[in-house]
Amino acid sequence: MPELRTRKGKYVFLCLRIAVVMVGIVWAGVWITQEQRWSNITAVFHKMNMGIFILTLGIFIVCQIIIGFRWWLLLRVQLIFISLWTAVKLYLLGWFYNNFMPSSVGGDLVRAWYVTKHTDKRFEAVLSVFADRAIGLLSTLIIAAFFYSLFLAGQGEKLNLTGKGDSFAFLARHKSAILYIFLAVAAVFCVLIVYRRTRVILNKIWSLLCHHSWATVVKLKLTMAVYCRKPLTLFIAFILTVGAQIVVITGFWILGVNMGIDAGIKYYYVFFTLMWVVAALPITIGGIAVMEGGLVYLFVHVVGVEPEAALALALCQRVVWMVASIPGAVVHLIGAHLPKDFFIDSNERIA
């Protein structure tokens, strides 16, 4: 029965994510058909040089290989000696699942599952995937904060989150009601804590969690200690991430300039990184609709870019992501993500 409820919950969550994607696509379709927007978007695409687009795509693919190298370094910290090419293939496979597959599992969990087929250090291998993701998200946030504080904050630039824009007007008008709802939920939770029966149930749950998770916590502590003893490797992973993301965003800036978008590169560094973090949240599938809508909103309301041009740029980024995911699909189809034989963490094969 609990398994059935869990399965139903996953299906409901998946349906909600698909619904968000569908609503975003329908809304964009309706918006494009109004006035002369479709012809304006077509005109923007006509300005684009296909060679510049291919260059941007090539830059993105190379940087994905660099990120795969970053994960390979984190695996070696845990003495997991799979080949660099294997790490890159598994990373590309995870990237494909992130962008194409309508699943609540996500590319990180797929990558974590298959890397355990290449080593007997399964816990450490899985943890390396989430350490890799944490470094990626932290680096992205640091880039956004750095360029915002360096170029935008000192010049009086700020994101339009005051309710003057259409997207946030509802939140601005009803912020008091939202606060009261939050306080009411907190009060209900506090009342439940007062009742003895509720406390007993919570204590049982806590005891169960402690019983089953203590060994995992100890192992997690030991594994994280290994990373802490390798600060140079973590620093190199951080530098690789920052460098790869800056190069990718610069490529999109070159593409934007080619499409006639009049916006400084500083805005790209802030907006793209900010929306990449938002897209990592399990709101939709691969961040579809949410990321595009966020980029359009920021470029239009903060920089003053024409909506059609901003949407064309956002769609170009989506196409780059999708095309760059094709190698991951090939890896899956030919079974290159699975080891030919079982390997332990050494350079020799078991006979």
Categorize the overall geometry.
Answer: globular
Order of helices and strands: HHHHHHHHHHHHHH
Helix content bin: over 70%
Distance between the termini: 44 Å
Which residues sit in consecutive blocks of at least 5 with pLDDT less than 50? 160-168, 342-351
How many strands, which pairing sense, and closed or not: the largest β-sheet? none
Tally of separate helices: 14
The total beta strand count reads 0
Q: Could you walk me through the main structural features you see in this protein, from its secondary elements to its overall organization?
A:
- With 351 residues, the protein is mostly helical.
- The protein has one domain.
- The protein is built from 14 helices and no strands.
- The relative contact order is 0.15.
Q: What is the topological layout?
A:
Blueprint: H1 2-33, H2 37-47, H3 50-77, H4 84-100, H5 107-115, H6 122-152, H7 166-173, H8 175-194, H9 196-228, H10 231-258, H11 265-279, H12 290-303, H13 307-324, H14 326-333
Helix pairs in contact: 2-13, 3-4, 3-6, 3-10, 3-13, 4-5, 4-14, 5-6, 6-10, 6-11, 10-11, 11-12, 12-13
What is the gist of this entry?
The chain has 351 residues and is mainly alpha-helical.
Task: List its salient traits.
globular, single chain, about 350 residues, mainly alpha
